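Exercise 3.2. Students should predict the tertiary structure of the chain below and write it as structure tokens, then compare their answer with the key that follows.

Predict this chain's 3D structure.
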Amino acid sequence: MPYQFECPRDGCSFELRCDADREAARLARAHTRVAHHDRIAPADLDRWLERIEAA
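Answer key:
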């Protein structure tokens, strides 16, 4: 099942869609680390990583 992540930071338009949850989580953490010099808490990542319907 596909997964989606939209960065919750104000002014950030980063979005990703990925078929694997581990890959989506890895890319979301990498984005936050590189773009915002921060880390995502596991609980926050669980809230922000959404399952989406395949088109």
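Discussion points: Helices lie at 21-36, 42-48. Residues 3-51 form one domain.
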